[in-house]
Write a structure and sequence with these properties.
single chain; alpha/beta; 6-stranded parallel sheet; 14 helices
C-alpha cells in the first residue's frame, strides 16, 4: 500500500551519515575538528536487501569517517524499533534508503565531539534525528549538524528515544485537522500503538476526551486499565464498535469530529460511521493492509472529510525551527508528567534478532528499544 521512493534521490547528501564499511575505501580526509572519530569502529545493524527483518538484518563492524567542520560525532544511547522501520526493511514504505543501509529512524544519542563550524550542540548534549533515514541502530555515527536536533537531557531516556516520531505524529494530527476545544471528543483505532498512547495523553493534556478502539485479546482488562491510567475515557474493542450499544457512549459526550485511523478496512469504515457531520478522518497507517472504504451517503449527507498524515511530509512542508518547536512542546509535556514513553522493553543491540521478531508479534504490549 505504500508508494516507494528512493531515499537517495529525496534526501540531501548533508543528511546522510558518514559511515563506511570497515573494508571499504576511504574518501579524502575531512577538515580539522575539535575531536576526530577517524579510525573508530562501530557496530551497526545493516541490511543489504529487502526481506524479513530478522533474516536480512546483520550486526556488522563498520568504520567511522573523520569528523568534518560541520559534523557531529554521536554515541547512540537507545533506539526503538517502530513499524516504519520494519516496513523500510521489508521494502514497502514511502521512503527507502539506498542499500546497504543501517536500520532505524529514531533514537537518542549523546554528542562526543563536534566540528569547528558546529554551534548548535556541544559535547555531552543529547540529540535526536531531524529526519528519517539516518540509521540509528548503531553504537556511534558521524552526522551533519543539520541532521540533528538537540533535546534536553533532563527527560527520561526512553522518552527521548521515542520522542521524534509517534508523539510528533499524535500532536500534529490532534492540532492540524480540526479546531478542537476542551470537551470535544476524538475516536481512534490502534489505540495501544505508540501513536495511540501518545494521542490519549496529549488529548488529555488538551482537555479532549478519547474513545479508544483496540483488538480483543486475552489480557483485555489489563490493557484497558493501562490505557485508562494514561487518560483514556473509553476503551472498546473492534467488535463493540460495530454494536448498537455504541450509542450509549455518546449519551454523556459529543460525537467525535476527529477520527484517527491506523488500521484501514472495516475498522476505518466503523470510525467514519461514528463521526459527527462535517468531521474528519485522518489516516496515518494501514495495519490491516486493506483500503479505506467510505459510503457515498457518508460523503454526501454527512460531508465527512478523508485526509492523510505522514510526519516526513510535514517536516518537508515546515522549517527545521518549527520541528524544533514541536519537539520542545512535547518535552514540556514530558516534564509536567503529561506525556510518558509507551510501554518499553530495553534490549541489548546484540540481541537484535529477538527484538525484531518480538516487534512483529500481534498484540505487542511493549515497544522494543535497542540499547547500545
Amino acid at each position: 500500500m505504500w508508494v516507494c521512493a528512493l531515499w537517495e534521490a529525496r534526501t540531501p547528501a548533508l543528511l546522510r551519515p558518514r559511515l563506511l564499511p570497515a573494508s571499504g575505501c576511504r574518501p579524502p580526509a575531512a577538515a580539522s575538528c575539535s575531536a576526530s572519530a577517524e579510525g573508530s569502529r562501530v557496530r551497526a545493524l545493516v541490511y543489504g536487501h529487502h526481506g524479513h527483518p530478522a533474516k536480512v538484518v546483520e550486526l556488522k563492524n563498520l568504520e567511522l569517517a573523520a569528523v568534518g567542520r560541520s559534523d557531529v560525532h554521536v554515541k547512540m544511547l537507545a533506539a526503538p524499533i517502530n513499524p516504519s522501520d520494519i516496513n523500510m526493511i521489508q521494502g514497502n514504505y514511502g521512503l527507502l534508503p539506498q542499500l546497504p543501509a543501517v536500520g532505524g529512524n529514531e533514537g537518542v544519542g549523546q554528542v562526543v565531539a563536534v566540528g569547528s563550524n558546529v554551534t548548535g550542540v556541544k559535547p555531552g548534549d543529547w540529540v535526536i534525528p531531524a529526519t528519517a533515514g539516518l540509521g540509528t541502530w548503531r553504537t556511534e555515527a558521524v552526522f551533519s549538524e543539520e541532521a540533528l536536533i538537540g533535546v534536553p537531557s533532563d527527560i527520561p531516556l526512553q522518552s527521548a528515544a521515542t520522542l521524534g516520531v509517534n508523539p510528533c505524529t499524535a500532536y500534529r494530527m490532534l492540532k492540524d485537522f480540526e479546531q478542537l476545544q476542551p470537551g470535544d471528543s476524538v475516536i481512534q483505532n490502534a489505540s495501544n500503538s505508540g501513536v495511540g498512547q501518545a494521542v490519549i495523553q496529549i488529548a488529555a493534556a488538551l482537555g479532549l476526551r478519547t474513545i479508544n478502539v483496540v483488538r480483543d485479546r486475552p489480557d483485555l482488562q489489563k490493557l484497558t486499565d493501562r490505557l485508562k491510567n494514561l487518560g483514556a475515557e473509553h476503551v472498546i474493542t473492534e467488535e463493540e464498535l460495530r454494536t448498537h450499544e455504541m450509542k450509549n457512549v455518546f449519551k454523556d459526550m459529543p460525537q467525535p469530529r476527529l477520527a484517527l485511523n491506523c488500521v484501514g478496512g472495516k475498522s476505518s469504515t466503523e470510525l467514519l460511521r461514528h463521526l459527527a457531520p462535517g468531521g474528519t478522518m485522518v489516516t496515518y497507517g494501514g495495519m490491516a493492509k486493506q483500503p479505506v472504504i467510505a459510503s457515498v451517503s457518508q460523503l454526501i449527507f454527512k460531508d465527512l472529510k478523508l485526509r492523510g498524515f505522514w510526519l516526513s511530509q510535514w517536516k518537508k512542508d515546515h522549517s527545521p525551527d518549527q520541528f524544533k518547536e514541536l519537539i520542545l512542546t512535547l518535552c514540556d509535556l514530558i516534564r509536567r508528567g503529561q506525556l510518558a514513553a509507551p510501554a518499553c522493553s530495553e534490549v541489548p543491540l546484540q540481541d537484535y534478532q529477538c527484538a525484531l521478531e518480538t516487534s512483529m508479534q500481534p498484540f505487542l504490549s511493549s515497544k522494543q528499544i535497542l540499547t547500545m
